[in-house]
Specification:
291 residues; alpha/beta; 8-stranded mixed sheet; 12 helices; 37% helix
Length: 291
C-alpha cells in the first residue's frame, strides 16, 4: 500500500499549504523526509504502525510531495525555514506530549533541529542515513552533487531534466534498480520543472563551509545533539550510501554513542526501500518498547 491510499490532509504553514498524512491513534510518530522524497518514502511504516496503536504523521515539506510548490521568490527554501515550518506544523497539531521522531536525509537536520530545541517533547528517535552536523573536514561532497549545485548546470539538469530525482533511483539504492512502485511514487510529485524548485534548492543548500546559510543551523544542532543521547535512539544505516557513508555514521555515533545501531551492507541511501523487510519489524519493536 502507498501513501496515495492514505488520506492527505492539509494546513497552512508560513502562508503555504502543507500536505501531510495523519493516521491511527495513540502516541504520535512523526516522520520527516528528505530530498528528493516525500511522505511516500515512509509508506511501509505509515501502513503498519497504526496496527500497533500509534498515530503516524508524515508532512511533505513545502515544495515537495503534495504540498504547495512555490517559486524561489515566494519561499526561501533554506534549512532554517524548514525547521521553522516543522515547528509550526508540530504546534498546529498540538503535539505537546512526547512523540517518537523518525528522520532520513534532510529530514535529519530538520527534524533533529526541532528535537534538540524541544527535548522534553521527544520520547524516542529513529535515524536513517543522514547527518546532523557540518561536513567533517576530511569529507567532500561527491562531484555529482557539486555539479547539481551550479546555478546554470544544476538548473538545467535538476529542474529541466529531473536528473537529481532520476539519478537517486539508481545511486540511492543498493539494488541495480528500485521496484516499479517506488520509482513511480518517488517521481510522481516532480513531474515538471516548476515542481522541482525545492529539489534543486535542497541541493544548493548543502553547506560546504561557514559562509553557507545552513552552516550555523548545523553547528547549533551538533552542539545540542548530545541532548538526544539521553533518549532511546535507533540508527538504521544503508552501508552502500555514496554520501552518508561509514565515515558519516562513525561521526554521528560520536554524538550518540549509546544508540542502537543496525547496518545493512546491501542497502543504499534509500535504506527503507532496500531493507524494509528488516527495518520495519525492528522499528515496530523499538517503538513498542517505549509503550
Amino acid at each position: 500500500m502507498s501513501t496515495e491510499a492514505l488520506a492527505s490532509r492539509t494546513l497552512t504553514v508560513g502562508g503555504h499549504t502543507m500536505a501531510y498524512v495523519d493516521e491511527g491513534s495513540g502516541p504520535p510518530v512523526l516522520h520527516v523526509h528528505g530530498n528528493p522524497t516525500w511522505s511516500f518514502y515512509w509508506r511501509s511504516l505509515l501502513t503498519t504502525l497504526p496496527a500497533d496503536g500509534f498515530r503516524v504523521i508524515a508532512p511533505d515539506h513545502i515544495g515537495m510531495g503534495r504540498s504547495d510548490k512555490p517559486s524561489r521568490a515566494e519561499y526561501p527554501h533554506t534549512l532554517a525555514r524548514r525547521v521553522a515550518d516543522l515547528t509550526e506544523f508540530v504546534d498546529a497539531l498540538d503535539l505537546d506530549g512526547p512523540l517518537c521522531l523518525v528522520v532520513h536525509d534532510w529530514g535529519g537536520p530538520i527534524g533533529l533541529s526541532w528535537a534538540v530545541e524541544h527535548p522534553e517533547r521527544v520520547d524516542r528517535v529513529v535515524v536513517l542515513n543522514t547527518a546532523a552536523f557540518p561536513l567533517p573536514a576530511d569529507k567532500r561532497i561527491p562531484w555529482t552533487l557539486q555539479a547539481a549545485r551550479l546555478p546554470v548546470v544544476g538548473d538545467v539538469a535538476v529542474r529541466r531534466f529531473n536528473a537529481f530525482s532520476l539519478g537517486a533511483l539508481v545511486l540511492g539504492s543498493g539494488r541495480p534498480w528500485l521496484g516499479a512502485e517506488a520509482r513511480r511514487g518517488l517521481l510522481a510529485p516532480y513531474d515538471r520543472p516548476e515542481h522541482r524548485v525545492a529539489v534543486h534548492a535542497f541541493v544548493q543548500d548543502i553547506p560546504t563551509g561557514p559562509a553557507d546559510p545552513a552552516h550555523p543551523v548545523l553547528v547549533r544542532l551538533a552542539e545540542r545533539l548530545p541532548l538526544l543521547g539521553e533518549k532511546p535512539v535507533a540508527v538504521h544505516w544503508g552501508m552502500k550510501d555514496p554520501v552518508f557513508d561509514a565515515s558519516i555514521l562513525r561521526h554521528l555515533l560520536g554524538y550518540l554513542p549509546h544508540a542502537e545501531v543496525h547496518r545493512y551492507p546491501g542497502a543504499g541511501h534509500y535504506v527503507l526501500e532496500d531493507a524494509a523487510d528488516e527495518i520495519v519489524p525492528r522499528v515496530r519493536r523499538f517503538l513498542a518498547a517505549g509503550r
